[in-house]
Amino acid sequence: MAIYLTKESKVLVQGMTGGEGMKHTRRMLAAGTNVVGGVNPRKAGRTVDFDDRAVPVFGSVADGMRATGADVSVVFVPPAFAKTAVVEAADAGIGLAVVITEGIPVHDSVAFTAYAEGKGTRIVGPNCPGLITPGQSNAGIIPADITKPGRIGLVSKSGTLTYQLMYELRDIGFSTCVGIGGDPVVGTTHIDCLAAFQDDPDTELIVLIGEIGGDAEERAAAYLREHVTKPVVGYIAGFTAPEGKTMGHAGAIVSGSSGTAAAKKKALEAVGVSVGSTPTETAKLVLARLEDR
């Protein structure tokens, strides 16, 4: 089992013929992802050779879905065109759109996440590494060779910390790892993933990675109290961040005591989450909680 992405998923890549799209499509194919096509209206009808796989290019997401039965889109387009790309995918009825692009204006993200929700399309991102179900499928830029299938579900704002925890816990392995992105507006939230992992019979423990800024982690803690029975281990990035400064992600800004790492840690610990002070300590807490079970 997994959440959102399985070996049955059929993936279109919007922007596949660009530099980043080409590079990461090759990596996704190498990981076993069923990439069934790319989308570029100026190159429709062509094919792109990736080693031993020729991938067709379609003029639109709708054309690609009709021809292949695709149900996932990965978006590798420049920020100025991201809103149009996501709206096109939602209009076509895609089930999941993974928006890798960073630097998208917040008002565009607000518009396309709301639009996609109204169309029944799940957005992961923007400004995210995507998601991976190890051994089955990889939609985005997460390295596929640093872990294996296993019992841990991971949801993270940070791409880098996603990779680090995957590597540190590689001997246990993961059901699905979801990088939701750290922008102020994202489509899929910690809470969405917590709910999905709670319902996934093959996820035994959940790792939640947050960071300073906003109140997403506090809201996740409130959800955990009422709805999640599986053990959860957390990590919050930014304990040493200076007050009032944006740190990396556009959403990571602290004002007063609101959004601090300490406040988030306190909220999570209050509902039974073990929170590590470093990624390595977090991994050790995961191992301890699994041993307890």
TrEMBL record:
Pfam families: CoA_binding, Ligase_CoA. Keywords: Ligase, Nucleotide-binding, Tricarboxylic acid cycle. Residues 4-104 form the CoA-binding domain. It is an enzyme of class 6 (ligase). It catalyses: succinate + ATP + CoA = succinyl-CoA + ADP + phosphate; GTP + succinate + CoA = succinyl-CoA + GDP + phosphate. InterPro entries: Cit_synth/succinyl-CoA_lig_AS, Citrt_syn/SCS-alpha_CS, CoA-bd, CoA_lig_alpha, NAD(P)-bd_dom_sf, SUCC_ACL_C, Succinyl-CoA_synth-like. Its EC number is 6.2.1.5. CoA binds at T17, G18, G19, E20, K43, I100, T101, E102. Signal peptide: none annotated. GO terms for molecular function: succinate-CoA ligase (ADP-forming) activity. It comes from the Bacteria. Pathway: Carbohydrate metabolism; tricarboxylic acid cycle; succinate from succinyl-CoA (ligase route): step 1/1. The keyword Nucleotide-binding applies. Substrate binds at Y163. The active site is at H249. SUPFAM superfamilies: NAD(P)-binding Rossmann-fold domains, Succinyl-CoA synthetase domains. HAMAP family: Succ_CoA_alpha. Succinyl-CoA synthetase functions in the citric acid cycle (TCA), coupling the hydrolysis of succinyl-CoA to the synthesis of either ATP or GTP and thus represents the only step of substrate-level phosphorylation in the TCA. The alpha subunit of the enzyme binds the substrates coenzyme A and phosphate, while succinate binding and nucleotide specificity is provided by the beta subunit. Heterotetramer of two alpha and two beta subunits. Belongs to the succinate/malate CoA ligase alpha subunit family. This is Succinate--CoA ligase [ADP-forming] subunit alpha. The gene is sucD.
